[in-house]
Amino acid sequence: MASHHHCSLMIQHRLSPSCSSSIKIASFFMTGKNKVLQKALIFMDQPGINDYKQAFLHGKSISEAGHLVPEVVATIKNSVERLINEAGAKTVMVSGVLPMGCFPGFQTLFPEGDSIGKGRCHKGLNMFARLHNDHLWQAILELRLEHPAVHIIYADYYKAFMAVVKNHAFLGFKTKTLMKACCGSGNGPFNFDVQKKCGEEGVTTCSDRAMYIHWDGFRLTPKALENLIDTLFSKKGFIFPEIKFGEETTAAVERHHSRIHGGVRDTSSIVRHLLCLSQFSIFNYV
């Protein structure tokens, strides 16, 4: 009889240079649950992204936010080290950030027309995202040298998302609304107003969200998320090192490729959905 593994979540809502992950880690360490972590894949979903988002929302320039990168990445590295040293983690996956310059919310905050590249994305913001990801990749290489017995995996969200954008028409997304929010105020080229959130009065929702990549200014639609994660795990060149799955898990990924799951609302849920049949339990550590 086949064994079934329960997928669990450990969630930290925000990672910032000033925060500490000691409470989360200590709770696992002191209760003996570190034995579970030794067999789990701990998923860190875009750590640091909220710090950059808050910096931009508070008026920081791209150049000013760039000074945050070393400190943010150092905090991520420290969090991984604590998961390894204090909680006994053996497999950790850390994702880079998505290309911010391709999101309606970030583009609205930086409306300089001459900074928009051929892919309709803000070049300066995307350079910033790559700066963070380059620093993060270097930190992961250092962690691997320091902890050779631990599997530390990098998920290239940036590259995977750009692959979705490049193939958007084939995947069923509209070209004319490629950078528009499905749920927005209707103002401006991106259908997004930072003062009007989705669900508030005067904010409308598109009737064909399956043809949109962006749900609102900063989040993707379920279909876009599904395609992003499918690209990460079903194609080569986005996960380093590549994760080896059994036949059952591989079949599950293929079955769910490019399909919409109405109940799935965030990236970590889709990762858990696709990996739940693997040999890992999944912990989301955002």
What does this protein structure show overall?
- The chain has 286 residues and is an alpha/beta fold.
- It is built from twelve helices and seven strands.
- The chain has helices spanning 22-30, 34-37, 49-57, 62-66, 69-85, 104-109, 123-146, 157-166, 168-171, 222-234, 247-255, 267-275; strands spanning 40-44, 91-95, 151-155, 183-184, 204-205, 239-240, 281-284.
- The strands form two sheets. Strands 6-3-2-1-7 form a five-stranded mixed sheet, with helices on both faces. Strands 4-5 form a two-stranded antiparallel ribbon.
- α5 packs parallel to α7 (123-146).
- It is globular.
- One of its GO terms (molecular function) is hydrolase activity, acting on ester bonds.
- InterPro entries: GDSL, SGNH_hydro_sf.
Key descriptive features of the protein:
286 residues; alpha/beta; Rossmann fold; five-stranded mixed β-sheet; 42% helix; 9% strand; disordered N terminus; GDSL; SGNH_hydro_sf; GDSL esterase/lipase At5g03980-like; glycoprotein; hydrolase activity, acting on ester bonds
